[in-house]
Amino acid sequence: MTEPITIKIEKLVHEGKGLGRFNNKPVFVPFVLPGETVVVEIERRHSQYSQARLVKILEPSPERTEPPCPYFAKCGGCQWQHMTYEAQLEWKQKILAETLQRTGKIEDAKVLPTIPAPKNFGWRSRVTFHGNEQGQIGFFAAETHKVVDIEKCLIVEDEINQKLGELKKEKRQNIKKDYEVNTSGKEGFTQVNPLQNENLKKLLKEWAMKLPHDTIVELFAGSGNFTEVLIPMAKSIIAVESDRNAVALARKWLNERPLDVRSSMSAERFICTDAVKYFAQYKLPLDLLVLDPPRDGAAGIVEGVMKSRPKNILFISCNPATLARDLKYLKDFAGYHFVQSQPIDMFPMSYHIESITHITSP
Ligand SMILES: C[S@@+](CC[C@H](N)C(=O)[O-])C[C@H]1O[C@@H](n2cnc3c(N)ncnc32)[C@H](O)[C@@H]1O
Fold this sequence. Notes:
Blueprint: E1 5-8, E2 11-12, E3 18-22, E4 25-29, E5 37-45, E6 50-59, H1 85-102, E7 126-131, E8 137-140, E9 147-149, H2 158-170, E10 177-182, H3 194-209, E11 215-219, H4 227-230, E12 236-241, H5 244-255, E13 270-272, H6 275-280, E14 288-291, H7 301-308, E15 312-317, H8 320-334, E16 337-344, E17 354-360
Parallel strand pairs: 4-6, 11-12, 11-14, 12-13, 14-15
Antiparallel strand pairs: 1-5, 2-3, 3-4, 5-6, 7-8, 7-10, 8-9, 15-17, 16-17
Helix pairs in contact: 1-8
The structure holds S-adenosylmethionine.
C-alpha cells in the first residue's frame, strides 16, 4: 500500500480518466473531474506515468453530480455518471479535438459541439450479460472479468431489464456463460443507441447531400444501416461488409424495396468480403467514400484511397484514437485535408465517443 497523495485534476483524457501530476509525472484517476483537488492512492506505477485510485475529494467540481446507479464505480459499464450531462458533452468535444491534434497532427481541428443523445438513460438496445460459477449475472467490473451481479441496469431499455430478470429466474446451473440480448431482432453488429442512430443517419445524409455523390462506396456497411440513406441519393453504390449474416440481412432488405427505390443498387452490389482488400482493388470512378470501421479503425484503406482518389471521404468512428491515426495516414500518404468533425453522443454516461469526420482531396 502506498502513501495517499493530494493532486489537482487538470483535465479528462482517453478512457474518461482524470489527469493530475505528482513529481512532474502524469497520474491517471477514474471518477474525478477537472478542477477537483483529490486524495489518491497510486495502484500501478509505470516509468512514464501512474494509475491511481480515488480516496477522497477535498474540493469537488461544480460539475459533479450524484450518480443515480447503485452499481456505479463497481460495474465497468459507465465511467461518467458522476458528471453533469452538459459537462460530458463538452468533454467529448474536447477529447476528440485533442486526440485529432496530438495523434492526427491536425492543428486547430474544427470539432463541432457534441450532439446530445435523445435519452441519457434507458437508451441501450444491445448488451452482453456475463454469468459466473456463483450463479451471478451482470457486467464485468472495470478492467477485469469479475462479474458484478446486477438486478437492473439504468442504461438499457426496459425490455432488456425484463430479460435480465428472466435470465436470473431461469438460471438453474451455475455456469460461466455470456448472454447476448439485442432488442433490434438483428444478428451481428447493430448500433446500440437506436434513437441517436436515427440522428446520425440524418447527419450523414445532410453531409453527403452537400458533396458530389453520384458514385458511392460504403465500407464496413453492417446490415445496411447507412446504405439505406445513401441508396436514394446515388446513381451507383457499392457496399462492403465481411459478416455473412449481416450481408444476407442487407440483401433481403434490399430485395424487398420497390425497384425505383433501389435503382442505384442491386443485391449483388452488397459485397461480402474484406473491405480493405476489396478497396485496394477498386477501379471504378468514385465521388464519395463512406466508412464506419470497428474500434480498431481502418489503417489499411489508405492504399485503396491512393488509387481511387475519392473527392470526399465521410469517416464514421467510435474510437478517436484510431480515427486520428487513420486520418494522419490519409493526410501524410494521400494528401487529404481535414474539413470538420462532429461528435454525436451515442453512449451517454460512458467515455466512448462516436463521430463523423469529413476529409477532402485538394
Ligand atoms: C462499426 S460496425 C458498422 C456497421 C454499420 N455501418 C452500422 O452502422 O450498423 C463495423 C462493421 O464492420 C464489419 N467489419 C469488420 N472488419 C471488417 C473487414 N475487414 N471488412 C469488412 N467488414 C468488416 C463488422 O462486421 C461490422 O459490421
